[in-house]
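Hi support team,

I'm opening this ticket because the web form for multi-chain structure prediction keeps timing out on my end. I have pasted the exact lines I submitted so you can reproduce it. The total is 1188 residues across two entries, so I didn't expect it to be a heavy job. Is there a limit I'm missing, or should I split the entries? Thanks in advance, R.K.
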Amino acid sequence: MSGVICSEHITSMIGRPRESRLRRISKKVCSSESWRRRLPITIWLPKYNIDYLIRDIIAGVTVGLTSIPQGIAYAIIAGVPPQVGLYSSIFPGVVYMLFGSCKDVTVGPTAILAALLAKYVAYSVDFAYLAAFLSGCCILLLGVLQLGFLLDFISKPVISGFTTAAALQIAATQLKGLFRISGSSGHTFVSALINFFSNITTVQLWDTVLGIATIISLLVLKRLVLPVSATSSHCRVVTARIWQYFVRARNALVVFACTILAYILHLYGRTPFALTGKIHGGLPHFGPPPFSTRVANETIGFEGMLSVFGAEGFVMPLVAILESIAIAKAFAGSTSVDGSQEMLAIGFCNMLSSFCQCMPSTGSFTRTALNHASGVVTPAGSLFKASLVLLSVTLLTDAFYFIPRSTLAAIIMVAMSSLIDLKIIKQLWRNCKLQLMVYTSTVVVGVSAGLEYGIVAGAVLDVIRAMYIVARPNVTTHTFKVGNRDCVCIAIVGPLSYASAEHVSRMLRRHARTNVIVLDARHLTTVDIGVAENVISVILELESNHTFLLWNFPDKIRALLEDLHTGFGSRFVTGPSIDQHILGLDIERRDHVY
Amino acid sequence: MSGVICSEHITSMIGRPRESRLRRISKKVCSSESWRRRLPITIWLPKYNIDYLIRDIIAGVTVGLTSIPQGIAYAIIAGVPPQVGLYSSIFPGVVYMLFGSCKDVTVGPTAILAALLAKYVAYSVDFAYLAAFLSGCCILLLGVLQLGFLLDFISKPVISGFTTAAALQIAATQLKGLFRISGSSGHTFVSALINFFSNITTVQLWDTVLGIATIISLLVLKRLVLPVSATSSHCRVVTARIWQYFVRARNALVVFACTILAYILHLYGRTPFALTGKIHGGLPHFGPPPFSTRVANETIGFEGMLSVFGAEGFVMPLVAILESIAIAKAFAGSTSVDGSQEMLAIGFCNMLSSFCQCMPSTGSFTRTALNHASGVVTPAGSLFKASLVLLSVTLLTDAFYFIPRSTLAAIIMVAMSSLIDLKIIKQLWRNCKLQLMVYTSTVVVGVSAGLEYGIVAGAVLDVIRAMYIVARPNVTTHTFKVGNRDCVCIAIVGPLSYASAEHVSRMLRRHARTNVIVLDARHLTTVDIGVAENVISVILELESNHTFLLWNFPDKIRALLEDLHTGFGSRFVTGPSIDQHILGLDIERRDHVY
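Hello R.K., no limit was hit. The queue was backed up. Here is the completed structure from your submission:
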């Protein structure tokens, strides 16, 4: 292998000419291209044509049919009135059409956000609208300040563990609806299970039968695919395609069938199932989100509401971005996702739609996958989805009265089962047990103490794990002889962060047997002040019996050491070979003695 | 430079034969040597002799003379009765004599711990005893579980910033005592200053004069050294030595002088100064620490007391260990400090002394320095210090009545001025601005919101800073040609933690121009699962136009990649040269085409 190896920090690898930073930023801000990227509709709308329109309508209607039952179901999880879930499937979608950069992403209420919201809505429904507004503001702020890199600190095992915990918790809270047992549904997995088992004697036969029948039919429908081969007849191909749409709209169809059943039974004067009940349809009340509310006949001001959200409240915007960006990446294919733009889009979605009685919303995995599979071409698909849901919330609310609750619970439980990722446990077990511990902690804390605490516990443990790895930097040692001197060359690689301070001084002490200790710093990038002080004190301590040579130190680190201890300069040596410097020591000493 | 470079993880560098882990631990637990290390008195007591005794008595008495005024002063900072400060200078010291491994460390109440304690004592003095007990338990637990490495995550700038904020806050709260102004002293630096300036019209002349006179005399006494040369007469040498003891006991002497002054004025019927007042001397009440207390006529149980401490309560044991270990290290000289043993010692000190009405205590920097300077030989010095303080608390409490409060305030302010470290600001400014930001945040949050929040904010920012550095791993690139192929070799160094996932995939995409991309993993230590997934997806995405060669991957990382994506095996190559593998590609392709 020939050629010159050039070690360089990554930012200089872009090869961008060195302009003044201010100029670069101002150029970026002023160019029309960058403004168009911030409003992606200006890019795709001019190219829109009739073919796109048809395909977007088909996808929009398919997704809309799923959005209606899911919207109602997630509203029930959060504890808000069902129409709020529907509104949240309408308005954020329209906003996303303007700002969203990823055609597949479908914005709306999600089960996880609804589960996080539930404990605040227990006080008052006003918290749902304020949560949407504040989450929107937080996300926008992160997007504008380009703080997206903070999300990199939430690792895959933590996200996966959080999703699993959320899925378990949401499924557990649906047990109440599925079996129509009494008691509260509980706000954590554990409390939901306790509630379930302590009220298990109140199980209602017909709700249970309907719920379980719904689960089975959804699972069967999902797996039934009409096989089509190249030799199939045209008729069969058409049938297969129709069947495919049928399968994709299975949630809506199942709800439709169960609602019809409940309605017919109602006509015969029977209501064996718990029903969704009256929904206040029509358009929402447009206006700013509530900055004060009434809880138990007391008025709580904005500060009081903020203190109810507390620090845990930040988990909602965090999860909203994480969900949305993860989904955008999953469906972006070979194009890279503009994280900042996604944050702006989701931020605006939440902030603006909080003026239309919406709960927090973000990209939904199931509906995005459906959108993608239905062949959506542009974000305009969201508009058609929104129109369908809007139609339903204005015209069909009387029909929604008859949707059995156990059917909705069943739909949620089936959706949750697809979120649980067991493969990663096997992969982590085989490859990295420490990361498995992080995953397990996230799940365990999430299901027992609450989802917010789960994600925080996971992130903290993960940072400790990563810092522990960094605290034990990679070191290559190399012992050799020059003349009759035993020498050791210690090459330290990577950054020396403060967490490695103790470790580095222990390591240097361990080589106290050899005569000359060479520190090779070619691959040293940064050194924290605490580490530098420890290194200096070990060198000063061992120097009575040993000779230290500091070889090839980068200028910045050399300046730091000389600043901390003046008179350190004589120990620094540079050059490709260390042997001559070690031989030089003998000459110096001889000069000194004679 | 000759010889074979052996890259190895650091744990394998100790050269210890590979025993089973269980056997190693059991060996360690059972050996009498390791038990003796846990009870260091068994090591030094058998060697004790009369010479040691004399030197320990001299040091003990010198330190004791400082411990008396400091004990009273720190009790006033915490808001506990003055005798509690004295008890805390007695009992923890005796316990440390048994368990402590560092002869110089002097355990007792410290200004920072007292400042942290003050807000809890504002409810009830019982919180002081319970805080000592619980801090002791926490520290013991950390010591027994060998979790000392967690302290490495508190970096030098954070500790320094915290100390500075604490010194500023404590000095500010003493303004009230120094000038005898009315109003409360405030619990943060900012509130103390606001209090001071809003009550500045209530300044009392004589307290102010006495306080400022005390400050000046302390500063002058500290700097006055009698010069002794080799030719000095015997008489002069003796005078100089006596003067030295005089200087070391300056705190006690100044208090003595001011107390005499106050007493004489009292005899003449005048009390121009605020005095310490009645101290309930004698022995403390021995018994378990209080697990319930009364606040405002309501009984608070153990759980209630715990919730008053809250999560911020953990800062007390944390600071206690940090102070103590930092001090032990500063005076250990060339011997290394056994962190676990220090934790056990400080843990026992606090836990046991909470049975004798003591507040939390730890190693005190000023008294440890004095102990060292006074020539202490063994931890027995603590016993003599404790005896002197015990004598004073039983016999001298009537005299303590007359100690002017402004004198005590002056002593504290002078002690605090030595804690503020301004040098580090200059060093950080020159060498690392990001660490300066961490330092500044710690100070600013500490003085405005409270010391506990300062240390937490600093630690969190520092972790983010360190993780950000890790998220941009060091990369060396090397472009070369083999035949007519443009090749690039990307060598990644160090661990690839999850925070670098996005960065690594961006970096790989940037090299999409070249024909062959070689990933050199010789210096790669660990790869997190998220990064591995990103690397795989980028490789799969770019592979249609490029050839990827994964060169010299460690077995573990190779297994991880193959586990995540089966059929990845063919891309891995090993060997000292990459050229032959690239030439091999041409042959393969030729075979494929013809």
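A quick check on our side: Chain B has two domains: 51-284+313-417, 472-588. Let us know if the file doesn't open in your viewer.
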